[in-house]
Amino acid sequence: MKKNIVSLMLMTVLIVIAFTSNAQTGKTYTISGEITGQKKGLEAANVILLNEKDSAVVKMVITNKTGQYSMENVSTGSYIIKTIAIGYETYFSNSFRLSSSQKLDFHLKPLTQDLAAVTVTSKKPLIEQKLDKTIINVDASPSNTGLTAMDVLEKSPGVLVDKDGNISLKGKPGVLVLIDGKPSYLSATDLANMLKSMSSSTIDQIELMTNPPAKYDAAGNSGIINIKTKKTKTVGYNGSVTVGYGQGVYPKSNNSINLNYRKNKINMFGNFSYNYYGGFQNLNITRNFRTTNGEDILSIFKQKAFMKRQQNNVSYKVGADYYASKKTTLGVVVNGFSNPSTENNNNVTDILNSNSVLQSTTLASSKIKNNLNNMAVNFNGRHVFDSTGKELSMDLDYVHYNTLNDQMFVNSFYDNSGNKMVPDQWLKGNLPSDINIYSAKADYTQQLKHNIKMEAGFKVSYVKTDNVSSYFNQLGNQWVMDSTQSNHFIYEENINAAYVSFSKQLSKKWSLQLGSRVENTHSKGTQLFNGLSFDRNYTQLFPTFYLGYKPNDNNQFSLNYGKRIQRPDYEDLNPFYYFLDKYTYMVGNPYLLPQISQNIEVNHIYKGFLTTSLSYGVIDNYITQVFNQVDSIHTTYVKNDNIARVQNYTLSVNAAFSPTKFWKINWYNQFNINKFNGYVNEGSINVSGFNYTTNFSSTFEVKKGLNVELSGFYRTVTQEGTITANEMSQLNLAISKQILKDKGTIRLNCRDFLKLQHFSGYSRFQNIDVQLYNTWDTRVFNLSFTYRFAKGKAGTAPRKSAGAIDEASRVKSSN
Question: How far apart are CA 486 and CA 576, in angstroms?
């Protein structure tokens, strides 16, 4: 497979070089320069090249963060340049004749309107399709108001969240979720809780990248989801306040405030949110304990668990940018959260013989108190050397997580007549955890000769986790430590990475980007209670490749390839026990190996609204949850393990269209084939499965400012490692109304209003036979109100580009 991919890449490059050497006979030139206003470069200004003869649009680009722009492959002719920027007067240049590359700078005059009297209308589409990413513009849909980050993700094309909060992209698990380009370092469960407490009002865009460029970390089998939060650069102050209340079986709330203030060389920003979540989970598990050959049933365990969860979340983010000069910006950001929660679990396990006759019953109750705290500090700097695009940016980060987890379990045992068989068993657990993360990175960009753009950089990170697991049995009035279940695990990981990539517009129709990232990983784990340890050191190369072809204005094609790695979550490496009851628990696996994936993908974009993608991926050392049994004591436990080699074939089609002027639809369809071939529980596994997934959002503007949205998803039966998951679906309805001269939004929505969403499935291999059925608080009514305010002079708005944003999104970007 590796040889085939490399051969395909080399052959494609040779074909492109041979084709483009004769593809263009006429000479073309470059127009570049800087757009300034109020003594600074203007970001996101529209620079439009017009034909002098008929004012037809020839090209259009958007300025970068320092106001620089560049138009390549412009033919000889007579032109006019038109420049548009929010808060500035529209500018038309004198006509000029282009017969060589030129550098043209323009200075714009500011408008004098006060922001309080001006309403800026964004015309961004909800979904933008690029050759290397899909962009979700959160504010483009008023029905996103009042939601959480997880709600918005679940509505995004190709994104699916399973019952445990694991996120997959285009049918592939193992997504790296970034917040403003930085990893969260959280386990899947903790990340899901954080996203559920993160207000959509703090989010600007969500970027979905199946094969990210070399500048990003190689982590994430199926790619990267980058959540970009808001930070405007409007002169003066602006912000928004959101209050929301939700009611399912239990209440929920979602409240936040966002503030931004800029004056002279200082830009300050911050947000604060408080969220409350009350929910439940019903879990039914049926386990047939069979003989070693898997043929005859020895006993049957029927388990019913009801879990009630309460969670409070307080999160904050404050920061400032200092514009030391026209070319240098310094910044600092501090953010964090506190997430205390309690979970009460009542569990009934009926034990039956092979003839389904009740033998005994075990009643188990538990109470778990958990408090996850986080604090992170980032120092960043950026310097632009000149107008050619030479730029250096640096980041220093420190992240700290602290978890306090106290558990109490009581097990009571009864015979088939309801008589107590033995005294109750009490178990107490204390599982504190500390994670410290340090990282430094630098990125450098330079325009080389022959219009080749080079990007290079490095990153160094160090992580240390200190995890204690202390369990105590009650003997009389004394609590005695259980050494068989207690442990102390210290894990250290150092990753050193460097990358380089080159991109070039080969001709009017062809573009090419090649990159490579090398990462050296050194990890050590030590169990202090038993002295077991491991020490791993490995270096790996992660190449990336992008080839773009645009034969005309209606069609764009791309071919991309990438290799990625998925390292185990820190929590999965902890060799600790997490109990549901006496017969069911989870345990970590400190010997998990990272899984490696390779993906190749072909994309086609038709007229900017229809995107078709065909991809093939292979994962080695695939990590998934595996059911294990201790037959002698009829106990089942779940452990993550490297079980197989997985092959994945995916065809996806996304259409964003408007049947009428007031009706917008986005419809995503995905077809997957997954093949698993490996070894698990002392036996081989060779399974495959086909599944189909679709999600959609349909928004209808009843009248100006009043919108109705229907959204949802459906997934057929899916093979998830050793678990076969049955079909799942969801439908959501939302109504939003703009009020107070469009400064306020009232939103009423019902998530899963038909109560369709639940999880059911089974796992059958060797002598394992488990059936699962899981329901939770999915039908929730939410009512929210958001108010936006601003005061000051309109300045540079980096993500709003006047009325030309729809057209600008069709111009090919190097990002």
Answer: 7
How many of the other CB atoms lie within 10 Å of CB of 560? 23
Q: Which residues, including other chains, have CB under 8 Å from residue 21's CB and lie 6 or more apart?
A: none
* pLDDT given at position 116: 43
pLDDT of 455 > 60? The answer is yes
Q: What is the CA radius of gyration of the chain?
A: 28
Residue 673: closest CA among 652, 693, 649, 651: 649
Helix (H, G, I), strand (E, B) or coil at 154: helix
Cβ atoms of residues 241 and 267 within 8 Å: no
Residue 210: pLDDT band (50, 70, 90) is confident
Average pLDDT over residues 266-289: 92
Q: How far apart are CA 460 and CA 635, in angstroms?
A: 43
Compute the distance between CA of residue 396 and CA of residue 440 in angstroms, rounded to an integer.
Answer: 5
Positions of E strands within 291-357: 297-323, 328-353
Round to whole Å and give the CA distance between 725 and 704: 43
Structural tokens at position 249: 């079986």
pLDDT score of 332: 96
Query: Can you spell out the DSSP letters for 628-678?
Result: EEEGGGTEEEEEEEEEEEEEEEEEEEEEEEEEETTEEEEEEEEEEEEEEEE
Number of other residues whose CB lies within 10 A of the CB of residue 210: 27
Strands 236-247 and 251-263: antiparallel
Q: Are 318 and 334 in contact (CB under 8 A)?
A: yes
DSSP run (H or E) holding 96? strand 96-98
Tokens at residue 577, please? Answer: 């026990």
In Å, what is the CA distance from 420 to each residue of 362, 365, 414, 416?
10, 16, 4, 10
Beta-bridge partner residues of 503: 453, 513
Report the alpha-carbon distance of residue 245 to residue 784 in Å, rounded: 6
Q: Which of 488-502, 594-608, 632-646, 757-771 has the lowest mean pLDDT?
A: 632-646
Assign residue 16 a region: left if phi > 0, alpha if psi is -120 to 50, beta otherwise?
Answer: alpha
For the segment 578-600, the average pLDDT, to the nearest whole number, is 87
180 Cβ contact list (under 8 Å, min separation 6): 226, 227, 228, 229
Closest to 445 measured CA to CA, from 129, 218, 214, 267: 214
Residues 245-257 as b or e (16 or more Cβ within 10 Å = b): bbbbebebbbbbb
The mean-pLDDT minimum among 127-141, 232-246, 510-524 falls in 127-141
SS3 410: strand
pLDDT greater than 60 at residue 403: yes
Question: Between vectors from CA 213 to CA 207 and to CA 215, what angle results, nearest 5°?
Answer: 100
Three-class secondary structure of residue 131 per DSSP? coil
- φ, ψ of residue 688 to 5 degrees: the values are -150, 160
Cβ distance 231 to 269 under 8 Å? yes
Per the listing, tokens 């630098």 go with 442
The Cβ of residue 476 has, within 10 Å, a number of other Cβ atoms equal to 6
**Cα 234 from Cα 787, distance rounded (Å):** 17
pLDDT value of position 2: 41
Q: Distance between CA atoms of 17 and 804, rounded to whole angstroms?
A: 35
At 64, give phi and psi (nearest 5°).
-85, -165
Question: pLDDT tens for residues 44-58?
Answer: 888 998 887 767 778
Q: What is the 3-state secondary structure (H, E, C) of 359-396?
A: EEEEEEEEEEEEEEEEEEEEEEEEEECCCCCCEEEEEE
Mean pLDDT of 211-223: 87
For 22, 29, 551, the CA distances from 18, given in Å and listed in that order, are 7, 22, 17
